[in-house]
Amino acid sequence: YPDEIRNYFCDGSKWGINIVYSYEKELLGTAGGVKNVEDFFEDSTFLVISCDSLTDIDLTDAVGFHKEKGGVATLILTEVEDTSQYGVVLVDEDMKIKGFQEKPLGGEAKSNLANSGIYIFEPEIFKYFPPREQFYDFGRNLFPDLLSKNVSYYGYRHSQYWNDVGGLDQYQQGNFDALEGKVKVDIPGKKIKEGVWVGKNCKIQEGVVIIPPVCIGDNCTIKKDAKLFGPIILGNNTIVDERAVLYRGIKWGSGYIGKDTSLIGAIIG
After folding, report:
1. Which domain-ending residue is among 164, 184, 208?
2. SS3 string of 17-51?
3. What range does the domain containing 155 cover?
4. Are residues 154 and 29 in the same domain?
5. Minimal CB count within 10 Å: which of 34, 45, 189, 226?
6. Which residues in the chain show pLDDT less than 70?
7. Domain boundary residue among 136, 164, 192?
8. pLDDT per residue as tens digits for the range 80-112
9. Rounded CA gap, 64 and 119, in Å?
10. Are 151 and 243 in a shared domain?
11. Do 251 and 172 contact (CB within 8 A), yes or no?
């Protein structure tokens, strides 16, 4: 959905950043897409961050580790409990990468360190890539190729929050974790009490019960005797009618939740 992405983020000025886009007529893979914008990085160390990760990893510390090790690449690694859901990375005592296992079962796993999809590279990494406009993948191609050529690169183990938002369950958990302070995210709205944020021009009528954490967007109306049991996120222009009960859910965009309705664990666009 390139058009939707660009229409939403535009030039990035809303967030105080400058966004430049690269369009691919045909998908070039995770690494091929980076090769295609090689000139953008000039001759300096650069980061590649997967867009579907929610994290507050200390990138400054990670870059410091990368510089200290002196490798051509550093993969940021995260500890996982269920290795069967991730490709895991094998490292030696110096955190030098020695190999990979693709989604091993618990008893077969030789590591519990997963590839987080965040990488630090030196510009000379591009000499190990094929020419531009060719499909090339970090996990399937580049990293195994580096090992086969005995190129030294490393893994940085972090201890901060990381969520691979690959489905609705992870998406919901990431939003809830943000409300619960498990990941450093700015919550919109005015904090009216611990764990409750309310946007502009909201109306909360008598008898409403709000159990934190709850984030209510702008121009929302919560009618009398409605109950919100957090974690709850309500998007802008939402109306929650009388005696409705919401439990652990997300409601984005404008909309209406009717009288006496019960929503449990719902994600509504």
Report:
1. 164
2. CCCCCCCCCCCCHHHHHHHCCHHHHCCCCEEEECC
3. 2-164
4. yes
5. 45
6. none
7. 164
8. 988 888 889 999 999 999 999 888 887 888 999
9. 13
10. no
11. no
